Every structure is written in structure tokens, then in C-alpha cells.
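notes to self, project folder thing:

trying the whole complex as one job this time. last attempt i did each chain seperately and stitching them together was a nightmare. two parts in total, labels are on each line so i dont mix them up again. if this works i'll redo the older ones the same way
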Amino acid sequence: MNNFPNILPALPEIFVLSMASAILLVDLFLVERNRVISLYLAQATLVGAALLTVWGMGGASVLTFERMFVGDSLANLLKLSIYIVTFFVFGYSHGYLRDRGIFRGEYFVLGLFGVVGMMVMASASHFLSLYLGLELLSLSLYAMIAFQRDSSQATEAAMKYFVLGAIASGMLLYGMSMLYGATGTLEIARVREALTTLNPNDVVLIFGLVFVVVGIAFKLGAVPFHMWVPDVYHGAPTAVTLYVGAAPKIAGAALLLRLLVSGLEPLAASWQDMLTILAILSMGLGNVVAIAQDNLKRMLAYSSISHMGFFLLGIVSVTANGYGSAVFYVLVYSVMSLGAFAMVVLLSRAGFEAEKLSDFRGLNQRNPWYAFLMLVLMFSMAGVPPTAGFYAKLLVIQSIVGVGKIWLAVTAVLFAVVGAYYYLRVIKLMYFDDATETDAVAAPRGMRWLVTINALALIVVIPWVGGLIELCRQVIRDMV
Amino acid sequence: MFANHLLSLCIWLPILGGVAVLATGDDTRAPRARLLALGFSILTLLATIPLYTGFDASTYTMQFAEGPYIWIKAFDINYNLGIDGISLLMILLTSFTTVLVVIAGWLVIEKKVAQYMAAFLIMEGLMIGVFSALDAILFYVFWEAMLVPMFLIIGLWGGPNRVYAAVKFFLYTFIGSVLMLVAFIYLYFQAGTFDILTLQNLKIGLAPQTLIFFAFFAAFAVKVPMWPVHTWLPDAHVEAPTGGSVVLAAIMLKMGAYGFLRFSLPIVPDAAHHLAWFMITLSLVAVVYIGLVALVQEDMKKLIAYSSIAHMGFVTLGLFVFNAQGIEGGIAQMVSHGFVSGALFLCVGILYDRMHSRMIKDYGGVANKMPVFASFMMLFTMANAGLPGTSGFVGEFLVILGAFEANGWYAFAAATTLIFGAAYSLWMYKRVLFGEVANPHVEELTDVTPRETVFLVLLALAVLVMGLWPYPFLDVMHASVEHLLQQVSVTKL
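result (full assembly):
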């Protein structure tokens, strides 16, 4: 039994994987009207995984599976966030999928497989496990985007995402192979050790690094590797956009932290500049082009590009606190993105997608409460206090001012002002314009509660925001 | 328990009140929303009175201090409140004005009453927060959060071009504020804290001081507003509902000046001295040029808006001549302008509610039909022109005195306001109220209702009391201003 690996750190992954397979089977035997059981099982799986993760928390980080898998506090934090976000996604998607006749077990099964992929990414301590997790996530996403088989838009989006995603994965793999060639190991911690003895300006290393950064930028959707983002967000059924827009960003953060921070930090002088350029371009293009959109899903896609730019800024500082602020940023962003797409789902009904900006016109007259929730979400995205989005931005700016990059901070806040314009426009439509349709917004009660919790979390968190920030910085300190 | 947390009470009571008012629901329950809003605004006013009665005017230290309670430990951001003589006056002005605004909006606002009242109550709490925050980030949070209700007030209940005005207002102030945020963060890394009082004692080189000064300038000058970044104000004022204009003019503009007093002067005194010529020039341009611009306005609200800019130019002039008369005059002018401009906007509101026009040419001979109103408006117009015996005189006189001490030419240019101010105020008054009854609409006008009389009387009393007996206003700020001057005179290089 000596060579049997310690499976305890991976227990949540094993649980989710088994449950996903079980749900796949159970779903076969469910009649149409009992289909909702799959949903409840999927949500129960996430709750169970959360309990397992919490149970396994505490103590030092553990390496297992031939040092390919690490259980540390960063992984636990990211995993818990992924569970929560995905739990909400499943809850939101119910009515939407049912109205469109695509309420099938596969959605939840694929979603859970994606969750396993993200969990593996969060816990990866080896290039291979990282890559495997990423591919499991990506494959689930491709299938989910194409889920609405008869929609040509969705199929096109899935095709685009698949081709571009495959290229990105190839880039990443190519970069990894070069790093392997230079360092002779695939294990992230050993790569780091090996790098300290090598010349950081070695051509092979720089080449490998560039490919790795390109791969990461693709997955995060940072300019100039952002082309897929608007098309996928727009083309996918909104229930899938919900999924794509929230949890995978957290996994993307894991990818970046594990690769660039844990592994390639000795090369920070090189990737710092690359990320700076990516960040500025993302904030600039994302915010400016978002203004021109009249489709809310596309607007939010460009907004996500600009938010990823802000996230990268946190990393650019190359300090533990900067990484911590980036983690905090991505967690807050995923909650905001989740809520904003949930509002699109909420206003949609059978045969009608409320994805145009004009569909939000006069929402305050139709339902003041939803309008208020959307207001909170939009102001939070714009980074207006007292919402959580402000503290996220504050933290990132603080981390870059802390390393003396004041011009970068000024650029960032000015782009944030540009961004405020299109968020304000949504609020303007909801509050200042008259409704074109007068019927009240009908939403299932469960959905109503979830959206309320989701949006209000951004305000209610204020007194405890200090603790959350401390937590994000702590997990980074544990990792480094 | 309340005695130790009086400031928190003044901040959170109206905010909770706003939430309670929102909870009354749609317009079928509007009367309940109105009563509740009035109740909360009066309670808040009552809660702020002990701040004055319990205030020790002999010291500059922060009083009614609360905290610091740890909020964001990682950056040493604390919930930390306290007031000195300067913030005390602003807080009293805020709670007083909010009561008036609630009364003024009583019947005029017919749609979404609960949201309207709630917006003002929440804004009141946030504004009191701005004036009592002793932590830079806490200050910033209140400062920015305030934009949200104001944005909605202009956009929801405003005039025909309200959307443009609301967005312009928001973006203008937002862009200024974010630069201030960067400056705060820079200061944090120099001092290791966001505590305002610590930052005031921090040594900073001249080059960073200058940059910080301009970052603060971006935030505060836009808010004041100083020429040439004033263009959002006429738009916002014209389009905002009466209550929104009153709060904008009476309190929000004061925040810019308050920012100069609390941050620019004590934190970067050397840059302030070096750039005083710049600030004084802009202030004088505002006084003279904007005074002339006001003269040619055809829209009453626009005229008062430009007059506000000119008067605020007086305030900034007073602050940057760096002597006791100037600064005390500036602060007195802030308070007085709060009363007078608020009153004038309410007067225009009273006319607008009856005639639905703000154009001067649509009026004429109103005094024949509304004699009581005419006498009130006469008082406020005179106060706006700086007639001795009204509150307007105190501030203007002190500022001119202070400017004279610094440089006779400053005083000369500033004193032109006595001519221009009188010209545009009285000329508007003449065209609107005197003469023959201009048209059948004016013929149908009815005089002020009891509700309108209530707030006009309150404001008239405030204007006269401050004009005839300014001592209680000047006394509380004296120690704080002395301390401020001392801070400004010591170099931090």
C-alpha cells in the first residue's frame, strides 16, 4: 500500500466526478417532468463537494499523485468560489432551459465535468495536470455552447471557440514543452528551482514564456487574443454564457497563478512587461468597444475583456499583495458577471431573448426591485463605491501604485471612467426611459431569491470586505 | 450609547430612513412615504443639533470622534469619524437643507415619490459622512457613493434634457475623483496610513506635492466648480428638479471647497502656496467672467447656476489668500450661499410649479399677483447681491478684506462682484416680478401656500440671523481656521 497515493486532497474532485457520472446515468431513467431531479442532484453535488473541501481545509499544503496535485489554501479558496458560482448558474438556468426545450441532464453533467476541470486546474502543481484540467474544462465548454443544436448562432460560436481554443491550447502546450526542454522538468516547483540557475534571458525560455503567456491570454480573453469572447458570449444560450462568464475566469486566474507566479516568477521581469501591454490593451479596447454595443451580452463580453485587463494589472505588480488583489478582483468580478447575465436570463422568456440593451428600457417601471439589483451590479462593475467592485479596483490600483507604477494606475482609472459610461447607459435605460412593454416581469421564486442574494452580496459584504481581502492575501502567502 | 456615536447616528439614521421610505412601495402609498421622509429628516436635524450645542469652540481638535474601528485591516483603512468647526457648519447646513427639500418636494413630486424622498435621505447620510470622515478611503467612499442618488435624482425627475445632464454630471465628477483616489493611494505609501490627520503631518517633496495638488484639484475644482471645469453645473442645475438643484447648490458645491480645506491646504501646503496665483486667477475669472455670463442668461435657473459659480469663485479666492479673514470669509460664504442659492432655487421652483416655465421672458408683473412671494424673493435676491444685514454680506466682506491684505488688485477684481452680482440679481428680479402683468398666465398666479411659506420663512430667518448676528457661525470655526492657517504656513519640504 506504500505506493498508493494519498487521495484525501483530491476527494472533492473524485466526488464530483463520480456524481457527474451517476447523474448521467440517473438522467437516462428520468421522465421529462422529473428532469428537475438532475438539477437538484447537480446542486447537491456542489454542496457535497463544498463540505468535503471545507472538511479537508486547514493544515499545510499537501502534494500527492507523484507531486502532480496540490491541496493548498489557494486551491481551496478558488474551489469554494467555483462551487458557489456554479451552484448559482445551475439555479438560474432552470427556467431558461425549460422554456427553450433544452432542459436536459447533459447540461448539468457537462457543467460538473467543467467544474472538475476547474478544480484540477486550481490544484495543479504540474504542467500536465494543469493542462488536463484546462482541456477538460474547454471540452465541456465547447459542448455546452453548442448545446442548443438548432441555433446556427450557437453552433457558429462553438465552432469559433473550438478552433481558437484548440490553437490556444496548442500554444500553451508548445510553450510548456520548450520550458520542459530548458528546465528538464514538468513539475511547477522544480521548474522554478531550475530557473533560478538558468539565464533568464535565454532564448528558449523567453520563447516558451511567450507561448505560455499567449495561451493564458487566450483563455482569459485578453486583447489581442480576445476575438472569441464577444461571439461566444453572444452566440451561446444565455444559460451557458452565465457559466462561461463566471467560473472559468476563476480557473483562468488559477492557471495564471500556478504557471506564471508559482512556476515562472524568476522570469517575472519578462512577463511583467507582456502582461502590462495585455492589460492596457484589454482595458482600452474592452471599454471603448463596449460603448458601441447595443447587445447587452456583447457589451458584457467587452466589459469582461476590460475586467480581465484590470485583473492582469494586479499580477503586473509582481508582489504577493498584488497577486492577492488580483484574486480578490477575479472573485468579485465573477459574482458581478454572474448577476448581470442572470438579469438577462430573468428578463427572457420562451421565444424571447432579453439581450438587447433596449429590452431593459423602463425596467424601473415594470419591476423596481430588479432594476435596483441591476443598478447595484452595474455600479459595482463600474467600480463606484460603496459596492464591492470599488474595493476590487482600489486594491489593484493600490498594488501597482505600491511598486511605483503611478502612470499605469492613472491609465487604469481613466479607462475605468470610460467604462463607467456604458454601465451608466444601462442604468439610464432602466430608470430614465419609459418602458416599451408594460407587462410585469415574471420569474420563478427561486430565481428571484438567487438574483437578490447575488446582487445584494456586493453591498452586504462592505463591513467584512477587509476580512475577505486578508483571506485572498493569506492564500497567496501560503502559496509563495 | 448615542452620545458616543452621535456622528454615526447622523450618518446612518437618514440612510436607514431612506430604506424605510423605499419599503413603503409604489405611489399608492405616497402620503405615507412623504410623512416618513419628513419624520426622518426632522429626526436627523434634531440629531445634529447636539453637535452644535456640545461643540467646544475653543479647540481645533476633532470632536465627537469615533473609532478608529478597523475596517480593511490589510491597508489600515478604518471607520474613523470626527468633526471640527468647519465640518460642523457643513453638517448643520446639510441636515437643515434636507428638511426643506423634503417639504419642497411634498406635492410637487407626483411620480415615484418614495424613490425621490429616499434618494434625498440617503444622500443626506452620505453627505454628512463626507463631512465627518477622518479616513481618506472612507471619505472617498462617501464622496463617490453620493453621486449615485444625485445621478438618479437628475435623471428621473429632471427636465427635458435630464439624461444628458445626469450623465455629464456623473462622468465629470467621476473623472476628477478617480485621480484623487490615486493621490490618496500614493500618500498611503508615503505615510503607511489613510488617516487624514496623519497625512496632514506628512513630509512630502515639492514635485510630488504639485502632482498631488493637481490630482486633488481635479476632484475638488470640478465639484466647486471652478472655471473652466464648471460646464456641468448649468446643465445639471437646469435639468434637475427643484430639490436636486437645492442640494446641489447648497451642499454639493461646498464639498469641493471643503476638500480644499481638508486636503489640499493642509496636506500639500507648499504646492498650495506655489500655485496660489493659479487658483486666485481661476477664482477671479469665475467672479468676473461668470458674473458677466450670468447677466445675459434668459433662463432663471441658469442665471442662478452661474451666480453660484461666481459666488463659489469668491470662496476659493478666500481660501487661497491664506489669511484668517479670507478663509473665514470663504467658509461664511459657503454657509450663506447654501441658504441663499437654495432659497433662490426654491423660489424659481415655486414659479415653475405654477407656470411650467423658467424663462424670464414668460414672466413680468408677478409681484402684483404674488405679493408675499415677491417680498421673500426680494430678501433672497438682496442677499445674493450681498446687501449688508443679510448673510451674503458677511462672507463677501470678509473675503474682500482678506484679498486686500494679500494684494489690493485681487480685492479690486473681487469687488466687481458687488456690481455684477447686484446687476444680474436685481435685473432678473425686476424683469420677473415688477412691471405690468405680462400675460394671461401670470394673471392666474396664486400666492404662496402655507407649505411654501414654511420653508421660505425658515430660510429667510437663516439669512437674516446670519446677516445680523454672524457671531455664532464665525465663533465655532475660529479655532479650526487658526489651526489650518498654522498648518498651511509651515513648510513640509
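what i see at first glance: Chain A has 20 helices and two strands.
need to look closer tmrw
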